Amino acid sequence: MVNQPSEVGSRVPATLLLLLAVLLALAAVPVTAAPTARAADGDGPTVTLSKKEAGKGGEITVKGSGWRSEALLMLLICGKSTPERGVIGGTNSCANADGRAVTTDEKGAFDKRLPVAEPPEPCPCVVHVATVTGEQTLVDVVFTVAGHPTAPLPPPADEGRLAVLATTRLEGESSLLTWFGAPPARQLVFTVGNLGSAPVEDPVFEIGTAHGVYAPQWEERQWRGTVAPGSKAQIKLPVELSAGAHGDYQVSLRYGTKVLAEQPWGVSRPWGVTLFWVLLCLVVPAAVFRIGMAVVDKVRPRPAGLVARHAHRTRTPAAQAPPAPASLPWFTQDSAPPDIRRSAPPENRPPPTTKGQAWTRNGG
User: What pTM was estimated for this model as a whole?
Assistant: First the structure.
């Protein structure tokens, strides 16, 4: 009986240690699962390749997930690129002629075959997947084009060091063709300075045009020239909208991943198109009505009396002239009664004869 308290006391710490071990094990489960959950929540679009290396003329399968549903994507093989620095030089470094387009499904996934082609720039190369419309999203995956030349990337100082030093502006005016629906065109004029320590040669900018609440539609514009370190240069890039565009637009300038400037652009309505349709709606019905009336007038039957009158009107002027009054054969100038002789017009009365004059003087 004396040893029982000691046995109980020895069992209590063992039980406590067992409970403590279970609690620590349960506490360790969420600690190890939390990074996995955060990684899943923070994961953006992903892209996987069936092969990491292939030669020209081959084919790879590109699969993706986590993209926007029913988004239009562009798939390209680009040289002079890495996932860390992106595609240096824009899509000018990519095999654009052999690119492919694909639309994601409702879950944001896609599966597309891409032919292997040699890009215009040497490797390192990537498979470049980017959205075509809407918010810009892109993923670059390392890929090796077998047999393609390889060259080191330029130092980071050669890119992303430009800044806009003055207010941007749009130059140009609308022409008469624009009034009739031709695409409005301007030039975006801005001044940039090189804030880096190395010159920037032939920089590639992106011009985005947005209308209303829609996202900008980006197009690449390359400027030929060199901006030395610490110097500045004035750059003019063309901007063009679609045919018949009108309303309030926003023109954006982007270099690399940074938007350098934004410029509003109010485009007037092409009233010439409206005028054309109004005139078309008025002239065409009138012309059709006149043609229809002429056809009806040609084919309708005519009354017999109207036909005879029309034929009488078409005779020659000589036939239409009334006949001269015929003289009465049973009367002569001398034997005509006095009433008829007096009523005859003087211009038609024959000159009197000597016998008649004598007869008149004698009181006959």
Answer: 0.47
